[in-house]
Amino acid sequence: MANRALGSDIREHIRARGWTRIGKTEWEELRERFAATTENTLRKHAGASGVIVVQPWRGLDTASLDGLELSLIEMAEAYGTHPLEARRVVISAKDITRFAARNPKVAAGKRELKAEMVEWMLVWLGDPAMFEDWVKLRKAYLQAQRIPI
Fold this sequence. Notes:
The protein is mainly alpha-helical. 68% of the residues lie in helices and 3% in strands.
């Protein structure tokens, strides 16, 4: 199925159900209905539907460090009620981000950014509750070293 048609199908499914938010039950229904679709594709189209996708099903924003920071803090909150799902989502995002960090076809600056993101996710995986305090210290360190963030 073409990505555009798939996106339309996902958004239509969400609209037809009358959902205003996607949590565990709705996510499981989407996964069952669109079983051949990756979770990242589901996240993308569910997010584009205009409904609220709650963590951990919304996933991580790896477009910027600010987006990653916010989504990891939200994920730490979700960890309290959905620890296995939250860890699984962060591990998946880390693996994808690590691939970009090591890909020689990716521009050097972007590889450096992705490598930093991997470090942030590893810290989160080590102790989600301490991530928010750690990231404040990390950002202060990067700024003091004049490393762009």
